Amino acid sequence: MVATKTQEEQWMVQDQVFRIYNLVCNLPPHAQSVNFEIRRDNHVEYLTKSLKQLGPSFAVLDAKYSLSSSHSSSFYVLAQGRPWLCYWIIHSIAVMGDCIDDKLENDVVEFLNRCQDPNGGYGGGPGQMPHLATTYAAVNTLITVGGDISLSSINRKTMYEFFLRMKDRSGGFRMHDGGEIDVRACYTAISVASVLNILDHRLIENVGDYISSCQTYEGGIAGEPGSEAHGGYTFCGLAAMVLINDVHRLDLPSLINWLVFRQGVECGFQGRTNKLVDGCYSFWQGGTAAIIQRLHMIVNEQLGVSYILEHGSSANSDNCSTDSDCPVGDQVSEVGTSSPVNDICRPEQEGAGISNASHPIELNNTGDNFIRGNVCMKPLFNSMALQQYILLCSQEEAGFRDKPGKHRDHYHTCYVLSGLSICHYNGILQTPPLPRDILGPYSNLLEPVHPLFNIVLDKYHEAREFFARSQ
Ligand SMILES: CC(C)=CCC/C(C)=C/CC/C(C)=C/COP(=O)(O)OP(=O)(O)O
Ligand SMILES: [Zn+2]
């Protein structure tokens, strides 16, 4: 294939990224004057300033003006909408352990309330048609803001009706009335329904069929049947399959095989085969890896592997070491007996999340059970290398970008920071990471995010308790 001029230019940028990496890695430690620090204050200032420019009525800007030219795909056209900007900005600030002031929070909650459609869901602005992507952005924003006023502003009854209207006979969901059916739509609907505690069997009917049909010969997941596997859709498909307890229907060894080849020599992730690495895939691919790390029992089952613990403990899936280094196979799994979902190590969680015929799992608990305990699978990517790409190639003075040569934007800032958080916790969410897990000073440590929803963990827990109380 003959490369176009733009591609040639892009390869030069890639070469530049690789050079930066080589330069840093080949210097003896004492000669490394590289600053790996996260420019936290600058990032928070950039983000807060951008959010303020949207207010007080949030009527000034639309997301399309703030997006970089990094991606031209339909996702970004469809992603237009101020709820997305709110999510990217507020989530980024929260991942850095900071928050916006009360006045700005109130403005955001009020604005999003005006985007809420009387018949359910959120549009890209007041009076706009409700859309599943903006609904996901709005709900994740309101959860990140937290507090009773913000959480109770979400109308869960009309939301459920909106989801039913978007559901297609194929099992998939439409992004909006008359819109396209794809894996993003499945994920956004399922993710929001799960976190709001309104997921039921009517909503999940045949969703697993649809998503399974999108897994490609490469092993990753495409946006729709017959398309190319891509990191963004792979994250969406995998997370949705976990939330509906159907993840065992994906070919996980093949998915892992695809995923592990997506981290490039430049240390960042690419979204699909033969494309350039890009900071935003730190989350889409890194998050996918973090999810798979909690599915080792299903992976083992699919590989036909049955384990006997060397140190002789019983054949119980809850006996994994609390150490994140616990290798694949240190757990006992009798083929065919493990939980389809949540085969995590749960030393302190008696019976949490077990899902089989005799212990039917409560659908809305899946996301919560999934993150309990530690993981038993070794990391599926090189975390230190990804942190290098993020801190040296994606980080700007303020904000983050796709790669050198591109400009910062809120979308990349959000997903690069989310990916960095995934690197820091590397599967362990319950205990603080060790200094050896963090590139740069320990003060770089970010807040943990729930890998299925991409919401800061504390905020997720608050929302879950709130929606469990308000049936
Ligand atoms: C929750 C939610 C709505 C998730 C969306 C997931 C997501 C990012 C999907 C990717 C869309 C896509 C095909 C991008 C390719 O863009 P490109 O061709 O510009 O980039 P590439 O060269 O890196 O593939
Ligand atoms: Zn990107």
From TrEMBL:
Chemical reaction(s) catalysed: L-cysteinyl-[protein] + (2E,6E)-farnesyl diphosphate = S-(2E,6E)-farnesyl-L-cysteinyl-[protein] + diphosphate
Any GO BP: prenylation
Gene Ontology CC, one term: protein farnesyltransferase complex
Domain of life: Eukaryota
MF terms (GO), sorted A to Z: protein farnesyltransferase activity; zinc ion binding
Cofactor: how bound: Binds 1 zinc ion per subunit.
EC numbers: 2.5.1.58
Keywords, sorted A to Z: Metal-binding, Prenyltransferase, Repeat, Transferase, Zinc
Domain Prenyltransferase alpha-alpha toroid, residue spans: 70-455
Top EC class of this enzyme: transferase
Signal sequence, start to end: none
Pfam families reported in the protein's UniProt record: Prenyltrans
Xref: Gene3D superfamilies: 1.50.10.20
Essential cofactor(s): Zn(2+)
Keyword check for Transferase: yes
PANTHER family, per the entry: GERANYLGERANYL TRANSFERASE TYPE BETA SUBUNIT, PROTEIN FARNESYLTRANSFERASE SUBUNIT BETA
Family, per entry: Belongs to the protein prenyltransferase subunit beta family.
Assembly and interaction partners: Heterodimer of FTA and FTB.
Function: Catalyzes the transfer of a farnesyl moiety from farnesyl diphosphate to a cysteine at the fourth position from the C-terminus of several proteins. The beta subunit is responsible for peptide-binding.
The name this protein goes by in its record: Protein farnesyltransferase subunit beta
Organism name: Dorcoceras hygrometricum
